[in-house]
């Protein structure tokens, strides 16, 4: 079985531990494990790539057919701007990728309850997959979370705990609740199994582009769930000599909450280092726990971190809707940042970009 390893002191923990961080305070990664790049050609979910996931067998998997989402051109004028339709998932967001793998682990361990904190999408995904696995679930969300996301979490039978405070205060409340040792902390921040699920995003793009990759991935970044997942996929494909170089990861943050941006550019801005009110609630993370790893991932690919202008988010949402794509505001923020980036870098307009539609518009007001 695959053990955890601390990303600070290299101490190992057994795979069945309910600890969710090292005694030194470091976060867990997974020990290296053997990868099998042969695809299961009869499976049309993300488990087509079962051989690169840290799981025992397909018979244990908790799945609802997630993954293998289409790549669709933005419009006829920009056929190289490819949109990955991850809002066409069972719970209408890309977080189903991580939830499927993490809840599979929870089921294997026979846990009695899962706890998670979320701004909405990850909580919905964990609630749905926990329901499918028959595991009681408790989700902590900020009080200002979209009512539609809260309703969706409740629909799966999960207990919703509203925290009248910031995203960081919500995380602390869930952290404290999970510390009673009777619960499994199904955190998309702390548990590296979640990132093993999101890395299938990168494998799918590689296959869909006929064993090729775009020049750049444009990805939202809050806690780094998708950035790290895509980075892991790129590293594994490179190590296997299936690609010659990695795509750039260009990460997008809200200008009102941008700690990764300011760390990347070695700047300081008190406004952007706080969790201020932004339409992009899904990436409004003032203190990302895996900041060092996120920065390493972006820098290793020769990427960048850019800002989504707050006043352009609503317009980006409408531009997408005018082309048939109804997205939630956090996804619209990704495009607001991308459109601004292209204006500043017109020489890249004809490059091939992949951008995720992370969540459906039905989830936000």
Summary tags:
single chain, 365 residues, alpha/beta, Rossmann fold, 3 domains, six-stranded mixed sheet, four-stranded parallel sheet, 33% helix, 16% strand
* Shape by Cα distribution: globular
**Structural class designation:** alpha/beta
- The CATH topology of the largest domain is Rossmann fold
| Biggest sheet strand line-up | 4-5-13-10-11-12
Percentage beta strand: 15-25%
Order of helices and strands: EEEEEHEHEHEHEHHEHEHHEHHE
Discrete helix count: 11
Major β-sheet annotation:
6 strands, mixed
Average pLDDT, all residues = 93
- What is the number of independent domains? 3
CA radius of gyration: 19 Å
Summed up:
The chain has 365 residues and is of the alpha/beta class.
Task: Please write out the topology.
Layout lengths: L3 E3 L5 E2 L14 E3 L40 E5 L2 E7 L11 H14 L4 E4 L3 H13 L3 E6 L4 H9 L3 E5 L3 H12 L5 E2 L7 H6 L1 H9 L7 E5 L4 H15 L8 E7 L4 H6 L26 H10 L3 E5 L4 H10 L6 H16 L8 E4 L9
Parallel strand pairs: 5-13, 6-7, 6-9, 7-8, 10-11, 10-13, 11-12
Antiparallel strand pairs: 1-2, 1-3, 4-5
Helix pairs in contact: 1-2, 2-3, 6-7, 10-11
Structural summary, described in words:
This protein is an alpha/beta fold and 365 residues long. The protein folds into three domains: 1-32, no CATH class; 71-93 and 194-363, Rossmann fold; 95-191, Rossmann fold. Helix content is 33%, strand content 16%. It has helices spanning 96-109, 121-133, 147-155, 167-178, 193-198, 200-208, 225-239, 259-264, 291-300, 313-322, 329-344; strands spanning 4-6, 12-13, 28-30, 71-75, 78-84, 114-117, 137-142, 159-163, 184-185, 216-220, 248-254, 304-308, 353-356. The strands form three sheets. It has a six-stranded mixed beta sheet. Helix 10 (313-322) crosses helix 11 (329-344). The mean pLDDT is 93.
């Amino acid at each position: 079985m695959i053990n955890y390893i601390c990303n600070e002191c290299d101490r190992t923990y057994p795979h069945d531990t309910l600890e969710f961080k090292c005694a030194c305070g470091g976060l867990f990664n997974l020990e290296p494990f053997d990868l099998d790049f042969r695809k299961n050609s009869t499976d049309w979910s993300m488990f087509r790539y079962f051989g690169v996931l840290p799981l025992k067998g397909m018979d244990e998997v908790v799945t609802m057919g997630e993954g293998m989402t289409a790549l669709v051109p933005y419009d006829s004028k920009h056929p190289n701007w490819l949109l990955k339709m991850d809002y066409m998932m069972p719970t209408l967001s890309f977080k189903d990728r991580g939830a499927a793998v993490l809840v599979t682990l929870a089921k294997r361990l026979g846990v009695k309850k899962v706890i998670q904190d979320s701004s909405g999408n990850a909580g919905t995904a964990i609630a749905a997959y926990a329901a499918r696995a028959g595991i009681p679930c408790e989700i902590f969300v900020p009080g200002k979370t979209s009512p539609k996301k809260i309703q969706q979490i409740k629909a799966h039978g999960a207990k919703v705990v509203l925290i009248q405070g910031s995203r960081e205060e919500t995380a602390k409340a869930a952290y404290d609740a999970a510390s009673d040792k009777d619960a499994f902390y199904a955190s998309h921040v702390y548990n590296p199994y979640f990132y093993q699920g999101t890395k299938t995003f990168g494998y799918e793009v590689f296959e869909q582009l006929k064993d090729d990759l775009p020049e750049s991935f444009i990805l939202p970044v809050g806690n780094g769930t998708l950035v790290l997942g895509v980075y892991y996929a790129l590293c594994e494909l490179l190590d296997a000599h299936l690609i010659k170089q990695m795509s750039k990861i260009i990460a997008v943050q809200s200008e009102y909450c941008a700690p990764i941006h300011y760390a990347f550019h070695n700047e300081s801005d008190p406004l952007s280092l706080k969790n201020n009110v932004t339409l992009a609630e899904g990436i409004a993370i003032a203190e990302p726990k895996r900041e060092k790893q996120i920065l390493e991932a972006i820098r290793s690919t020769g990427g960048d971190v850019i800002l989504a202008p707050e006043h352009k988010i609503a317009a980006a949402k409408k531009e997408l809707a005018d082309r048939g794509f109804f997205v939630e505001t956090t996804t619209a923020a990704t495009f607001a940042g991308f459109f601004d980036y292209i204006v500043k870098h017109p020489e890249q307009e004809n490059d091939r970009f992949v951008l995720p539609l992370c969540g459906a518009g039905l989830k936000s007001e």
